[in-house]
Amino acid sequence: MTPIMAKSEAAELIVAARIRKKLTWAEIASELDAPLVWCVAALLGQHPMPATQAEQVCALLDLDESVAESLQRQPARGIDPALMSDPTIYRFHEALSVYGPAIKELIHEEFGDGIMSAINFNVDIARREHPDGDRVVVTLDGKFLDYRW
């Protein structure tokens, strides 16, 4: 019996197929009728995909059933520590290092004792034109979970 393909290997095949077919992530997400950031995260191995979506994306990208099988597996979520040095990813770490304590204080002031869920969660990115150069707008939208004793 052959082992199920690793999610990282499936992700590499998906990225290569997407580039070779000249498809954008937005086009793939639209084809799957899925939220853009969730779709990309799932295709990169951070979420399990329902069988129908996994099969649909593999048909779109001309990938075989071993990739679809991998996409449906439960992931080990997180990031490869080596990727933390990527400038884009590191800037998010830097932004949260600088503004995280202030955001925490403001969440507690507005909502009380609790946290923002990263499970019941949506994230979106957008471009906003600005005279000094276009801006990246990242919206983190998580359910507030109060601490209960």
UniProtKB/TrEMBL annotation:
Decide whether keyword Isomerase is in the record: no
Residue positions of the active site: 91, 94, 117
Q: What is its EC number?
A: 4.2.1.104
Q: Catalysed reaction per UniProt?
A: cyanate + hydrogencarbonate + 3 H(+) = NH4(+) + 2 CO2
Q: Which UniProt keywords apply?
A: Lyase
Q: Supply the InterPro entries for this chain.
A: Cyanase, Cyanate_lyase_C, Cyanate_lyase_C_sf, CYNS_N, Lambda_DNA-bd_dom_sf
The entry lists its GO molecular-function terms as: cyanate hydratase activity; DNA binding
The keyword Lyase appears for this protein: yes
Checking CDD domains in the record gives:
Cyanase_C
SMART domains the record matches: Cyanate_lyase (SM01116)
- Gene3D superfamilies reported in the protein's UniProt record: Cyanate lyase, C-terminal domain (3.30.1160.10), lambda repressor-like DNA-binding domains (1.10.260.40)
What family is this protein classified in?
Belongs to the cyanase family.
> What is the stated purpose of this protein?
Catalyzes the reaction of cyanate with bicarbonate to produce ammonia and carbon dioxide.
Could you tell me what this protein is called? Answer: Cyanate hydratase
Which organism encodes this protein?
Mycolicibacterium duvalii
